[in-house]
Every structure is written in structure tokens, then in C-alpha cells.
Amino acid sequence: MLTFWDLLFFLKKSYFFENRIETFAVSVVIIIKKTIKMKKTKQYVGLSLFAAVGLFLIAADHADAPAVTGNASDITDVYAFQGQDSNNLVFVVNSQGLLSPSATAMASFNENVLTEINIDNNNDNVEDLVIQAIKRGNKMYFFGPVAPGTAGTSSTIKTSAASGSVDISQYGQAPVIATNNGMKFFAGPRDDPFFFDLNQYKAILAGTATGFNNPGTDTFAGTNVLSTVIEVPKTALGTSSTVNVWVETKQKQ
Amino acid sequence: MKTYKYKVIAAVILTSLSLVSCNDNDDNQVIDYGPDFSGTYVQKDQMARPAINTVFVASGTPKDNFNMTTPSMMAASYQSVFESRLLALNPGYTTNALGQTAAQFTGLLATDVLNVSKTATTTFFDGTNVLTGRTLADDVIDVELLLIFGGPSGTSNAELTSDHVNANDKAFTLSFPYLASAW
Questions:
Q1: What part of B 142-161 touches A (C-beta under 8 Å)?
Q2: Which of A29, A179, B4, B83 has the most CB atoms at less than 10 Å from its CB?
Q3: Nearest residue of chain A to residue B114 (CA atoms)
Q4: ipTM value
């Protein structure tokens, strides 16, 4: 199947080697502008924009889980590592992958999607603590680490354990960082830190290639994600020497 | 004239009393000027180790189902599914560089949680530490490819054990929020 990425690869090869997605997006915009001139009706502008958005949604289709692909619930990556201050752990949750630079300013967190970092500190793979993040207005609000009301796939927001909030950073602006009770908070667009020649992997699985290229091509180069980053003192996560971590997105009913 | 004055004063007192009683009624209402965080939130997506659902679970409904399975229930439901998938990807699998059999390796992967150390170096794999976290710079795909395709010494299927994309396309920062600015 000819995907957006195949098309992009073709464009890169043939005309726009350096400018990649941006150039492609610009060309889409040019097509839209031409359409406006030709038709001069709002309907056609709407249709063209819809088509452009559709292309980007197809681009983000790599995970193939139908319920979340291409929407605000789609987690692209989770990171957990020791902070610059070695007394802290950092949690990074990325969503809405493969955002082109021109699509990034328009991408936004969803007020009906709760992000929940689950922390198991007695190795039974059931969460003992959660850190919750959710957007309201132009801010991201954070709760916990706190014991969840109930473990599992259904959650309420632990409003009694509010831990801070941060203004959502805008595309092209310096990151807004909030600090409260030893925790740090960030929410907004960032470069996607993930790197992988996903297209070659797909070609191998499809039987059209027998191995990776050297050098490979980073499918995620030049693309952005919406990041939520939380730094928390290790002491707030219990007394165990290791924890098990996973992240969920949950939709308001 | 005097009587009129008293009437006015009485009216004012009565009015103010009624206003006070109105105010009492207002106190019964909860006035909250903060955001509303009420309601129940039900799971849509779930993730821990990179690319596990992508690689080991079949497309479509099975991927959605995996996203709805709590980690404590995953091993029972998915170890055999993952083992079949592993052997389909690499029919010649014996053990990997960690010495794990197909059953042991997929038993570890099927419970999709990220193990994170609070005392040691945090990394997916750095040559010494294994699965003690995940930093931004970790080449997690090469680690997974090596364990899936590399055999007991990591030297089998050389064309499949690295995608030869070894680093991000933008440098990370030493301080919070650590991720590079958007393109």
C-alpha cells in the first residue's frame, strides 16, 4: 500500500531532499490556496484541510491499534530515568507521534484524556501509586504520587493529592517549567526523541527487503510529539530499590 | 415626619435582615471557581517497554485488547502469543544474548512494565545494566533486535540485529525538560 511515508520518500528522493515534511506541508497549503482561488468557497477550503489532516493521520498509523491510532489517547513512548539531580526520577510520556513542524502548533492535549503513570513498588505488577496529568484550559494539572482509588482500567482524579500545574508550552516558545514541593512539570511540543528505521522494518516484515540498510533512515527524524515530563523525588515513590512503571491514557466517560 | 423616619428605619432593618437570610441561602451552595476534575476515566491506551505491542501483538482488535489488559494479567494471556510471534520472526531462535530460551524471553516481555532502578544507572541496556529504566538516548530498537535475532552470542542474522539508526536527530539537554525543542 502506498502510504504517506512512501510518498514522502519519493518526494525526498526526487525534489525536496533537504526540506522534507515541511516542504510537503507547504505544497499541501499551496494546493489549498490554489483551490481557494479557483473555487472561492469556504466548503472547498474545509475539504482541503480535512484531506491534509487525513494524510497526517495515516502517517501516524504505525501502531495499528484502532481505538487509539491518530488521536490524543495514543501514547508513542514512555521513558523513566534518573534526573540531573540523582535524588529524582524523571517520567516522560509522549503522545500524538509523527507531528510535522507545520502540524505541531495546531496539536493540542485533550481535556477528556487523563494520562496516568502507574508505579508498582512491591513487584506484583499492580499499581501502588499513580501520577495523573490532565489538561484544563491552557494548563496541565498534576496529581500524586498517590495511592489510586482503585487499581486497574477505571480511574477517578485524585483531587485531594494535587501536586502542581504548569502552563502548556507553545510551539516555538521557550519551555515553561513549574516547580512545586520538589517536583518539576512540563507539558507541550518537543522533538520526538525516538529513533528507528520503521519503514525498513515494515519492508522486512512485508518480505520486500531482507535486512536493514547501513546507514538506516530515521523514520522519526524532523518530527515532533506532545510531551508531558514530570520529575519527582525518589523518596515519594516508596522505599523499594526498583519500581515497575507503565503509563495509561484514560478517556472520560 | 418622625413616624415616617421610624418607618424608613424599620424598612431598612427588615430589608437588611432579608438580605442576610438570602446570604444564608447562598452559603448552602458550593461555589468552586477551580476546574472540574469529576467523572470516571476508562482506559484507552497503555505502554511501558518500547514497541512491544507493535511487534508482538497482531494488528487490529488484538492490539486494542492488549492495551486494555492490566500488567498483572498479561503473562497468563500473552506469553504463548509472544512466543509464537518470536518464533515466526526468527524460526532459528535458540537462546538470546541474555541466555534466555524463547519461553523465558517472552515470559519477561509479556508482562509489559518498565523496570526502573532507584539506586543504579537507569538504562534499557548499556552493556552492563539490563532493563533498569529507559533514557532518551537508549538505542532500544537495537537492543530488542539483538535479543530477537542475534542468537546466544549476538552475532547471528547480522542484517537484522541493528537498524543502523543509532542516535536521535537532535541533541538532548542535561537539564529539565531534557527533550530537545520541537522542529
A1: 159-160
A2: B83
A3: A245
A4: 0.83
